[in-house]
Structures are given as structure tokens and as C-alpha cells.
Amino acid sequence: MSIRHNIRFILVRTSHSGNIGGAARALKTMGMSQLYLVTPNVQPDGHSRAMSANADDILDGAIFCSSLAEALEDCCLVIATTARARRLPLPQITIRQMAKKVVQQATSAPVAILFGNEKNGLSNAELDACQLQMAIPAHDVYPVLNLAAAVQIVCYELYMALQNTEHLHFVKEHVLAPQQVYFAFFDHLKRTLQQIEFFNDKTPNVQRWRRLLRIFNRAELNESEVHLLQGILTRIDQYTDHH
After folding, report:
1. N or C end of the chain, less CB within 10 A?
2. Would strands 34-38 and 92-93 be described as parallel, antiparallel, or unpaired?
3. pTM, to two decimals
């Protein structure tokens, strides 16, 4: 399996069918193939095929997912593309740092790059599933990129980063935990924190909970490390139940 096959482009809640086709074309021109569509607001149509410009194989092979969690479950690293300022931002990297990081991690497991809805971008809840974020530099007067154009730029940077790296072998050293392992850990963490009344009420404070997610996402843990933390939670559960 090539490194390219482990690089996943995920479009979330896409509103314009032409952008789906444009994204497919962007992937094909740079030798990529993994296009995922999460709950798109439109389905690929004739306009999509026209914009794909003969990248029908990428369009036809697109994987539809009913949730972001489904699209990410086996990914070891998730990077958000967003230019919007956030109250609790993720660690920011440049697009070229992104390319280097993706190529490095894709030698061992799938890596995902998220692109949000054309009007609203990625939601805060969608960002919670990411470890890093990046923004594509643009002129201050009008720093607004079309979705398909953004995908093309990211594909180009990855294409350049992949040059002279095809000889890399798939490695198993410090493979980051897949998202499905993180999701299970986060669910357990929330239940345990509620049980020990870490939160003032049964509903966790959104900002406080998001800060906790950021801490663990920054840590870049492997699967055994996440299981170790989950074992600590299990022991806390047993202790509180006993007492």
C-alpha cells in the first residue's frame, strides 16, 4: 500500500456539487485517491462530473459516511483546515508543516485532512476530533478560498512533500492511536468525571470539556498509552463504586 492511499481528504457537509467534482479533480491531478464525503448537503451530479474533468474514478470511488466519527475511526491523525479564529484554538501549523507531518504519519496509518462546509466551515464539535489545524495564507483584502481550490493547494503541498519519499517503508514505531480508541476513551472520561462530580452539574461545561480534549489531542498518544489512561479511569470507577 502506498503512502498516498493513507492520505484521506474529508469534505464535511458540502453544499455545492461542483466543489465535490472540483475536489475529485484536485486529488487526481496530484496522484491522490481517497475522497470521503460526510453528510453532504448535495449529491454528486452532472455538474460534479463536469467539474471533475475526467476524474470520474475518484468521484465514483468517493466514500460516503453518515458521521464524522465513521470517517475517522481508523485515522491516527486528523488535521482541520480553518481560517476562522476560535476561542479555544487547536495547535496551529503551516501548510508545509502539515504536508511533512502527514507524509510522516501516513507511513504507518491513515491520516485525515478535514474541509468544512463552504459557508460555515468546520464546527467546534468537528474541531474536537482534530489534533491540529492549519490555514492557507491569503491576501488580507479577500482571504476567502473556494473549497475545491483549497483542496487543490493542500494536494499540491502534499505532492511536493511526497517527492523522493516513495521509498519510505511503512513503520510501526509510535503509531498514533486511531480515533475510535480516542472516542471510546473520551466517552469513558466524561462518564467518570460526571461520577466524581468534577462538573457542577450532569452536563459538562462545554468550554471546560473542550479544554480537556485539547490536552489529550496535543499529546499524540499511541494506542497502548490511551488504554493505560482508560485503565486508570476503570480503577477510579471501581474505587468510587466501592466507597
Report:
1. C
2. unpaired
3. 0.87
What does pLDDT average to in each consecutive run of 10 residues of the chain (243 residues)?
91 98 98 98 96 96 97 96 84 95 92 96 94 93 92 97 68 77 94 87 76 90 94 93 82
CB 72 within 8 A of CB 78: yes
The runs of H, that is alpha helices, within 13-121 are 17-29, 46-52, 56-60, 68-72, 95-105
The 3-state DSSP class for residue 119 equals coil
What dotted CATH number matches 4-162?
3.40.1280.10
Please, are residues 93 and 132 in contact by the beta-carbon 8 Å criterion? yes
Residues spanned by CATH 1.10.8 within the chain? 179-242
Q: All 3 cell numbers of residue 185?
A: 476513551
Distances (CA, A) of 130 to 27, 55, 179, 203, 219: 21, 29, 9, 22, 12
List of E strands, 56-181:
63-65, 77-81, 92-93, 111-115, 132-134
